[in-house]
Every structure is written in C-alpha cells, then in structure tokens.
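User: Okay, second chain of the day. Same drill as before: sequence in, structure tokens out.
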Amino acid sequence: MSPAKRATAPVRTFRASLRGGVWEVTRDYVFYGDYLTREEAIDGACKAARSVEASGGSARVMATPSDTVIAHQIPRFKP
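Assistant: Same drill. Structure tokens below.
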C-alpha cells in the first residue's frame, strides 16, 4: 500500500480540567477519570498518553488553564 493511501492514526487528546472542585481527565472529550489534584490528573493523563504511544498511536496532553500543552514523554538520558 502506498504511503498516500495508508490511513494515519488519529492523535488522541487527553485533557485535564477542573470541574466542580474535582480534576477530570477526558480522552477525546469522553470521560476518562477523576482526580483530587491537578498534579494527579496530569500524571494520569501522561501515563495514558504514553500507553497509547507504546501501542503505536499518537497522543497529546493538555491542561487548564488555556489548554496548556503538557510534555508527557519520559526524558531519555544519555550516559
């Protein structure tokens, strides 16, 4: 199959936002989980994004305020 005909996988978007005093994470606007703190929500979203990427997909993580893009890849250190 030529590259032009090969379907590209959609980018999965994980978004953390404060809703009613609880941090909510969604994946492509569908509920994914609730967390008590912003840090826990971002951590959960980052782990989920890495899981998507580990299986060959693409993902990004965003958080309020202003849908800030969060780096979710684990840095690789060179010896």
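Residues 52 and 66 are 24 Å apart (CA to CA).

User: Thanks, on to the next one.
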